[in-house]
Design goal:
- There is one protein chain.
- With 198 residues, the protein is of the alpha/beta class.
- It contains 4 helices and 8 strands, in the order βαββββαβαβαβ.
- The strands form 2 sheets. A 6-stranded parallel β-sheet has the order 5-2-1-6-7-8.
- α1 (29-35) links the parallel β1 (2-8) and β2.
- It starts with a strand and ends with a strand.
- The chain binds pyrazine-2-carboxylic acid and zinc ion (ZN).
- Zinc ion is lined by residues 47, 49, 55, 79, 82-83, 108.
């Protein structure tokens, strides 16, 4: 039984001055670096969108950022353009220690579908491959940290719980977007799913 640390989307665009800045997103980097040594497996995720991604408001004529539209897989928030593949905004925060990572998983690269979770795209069925990797490594217990708590961290935590992992979200090493009550909603959903919020 091994423990894995999953570091979600600690990228420039989610930090202050980034395209989809999360308040104090950069404040968690030091603590995450310090945590890495205690885990047999360390995974980093990277939001990684093509320029024509359907989650970008500017790819929908007349749509405002943070408005919500219906996609074939359900409702979708339209975000400011962020984490475009290969851009500086998509790079990890420069102070994040990426060297100890055993796996870097990229998500959100299909133009027609967003992917908040590190395990499944937003249709909740298209797999990223992370589950297979963690199973092969014998990981049963996961600690999740990163950005944003109420989107990619929460979706990852809910999928992980559904897949049968023991899941802890270390709250002091996360920061939230908090759009239309999303933070309270997702904290409630995580608690209901048996995710430990520490
Ligand atoms: C995220 C919105 C859009 C996240 C990614 O990392 O939480 N949020 N893309
Ligand atoms: Zn994104």
């Amino acid at each position: 039984m091994t423990k894995a640390l999953i570091v979600i989307d600690v990228q420039n665009d989610f930090c202050p001055k980034g395209a989809l800045a999360v308040a104090d997103g950069d404040q968690i980097v030091k603590g995450i670096n310090a945590l890495m040594g205690g885990f047999e497996t360390v995974v980093l995720t990277q939001d990684w969108h093509p320029a024509n991604h359907r989650s970008f408001a500017d790819n929908h004529a007349g749509a405002a950022p943070f408005s919500v539209v219906k996609m074939p897989y359900g409702s979708q928030v339209l975000w400011p353009r962020h984490c475009v593949q290969g851009s500086d905004g998509a790079a990890f925060h420069p102070a994040l220690n990426a060297a100890p990572a055993h796996l870097i998983i990229r998500k959100g690269f299909r133009p027609q579908i967003d992917s908040y979770s590190a395990f499944f795209e937003n249709d909740r069925t298209t797999a990223t491959g992370l589950h297979g990797y963690l199973q092969d490594r014998g990981a049963r217990d996961l600690v999740l940290v990163g950005l944003a708590l109420d989107y990619c961290v929460a979706y990852s935590a809910l999928d992980a719980a559904r897949l049968g992992y023991g899941v802890t979200v270390q709250m002091d090493l996360c920061r939230a977007i908090d759009l239309n009550g999303s933070l309270a909603d997702m904290q409630g959903a995580m608690r209901a799913a048996g995710v430990a919020l520490s």
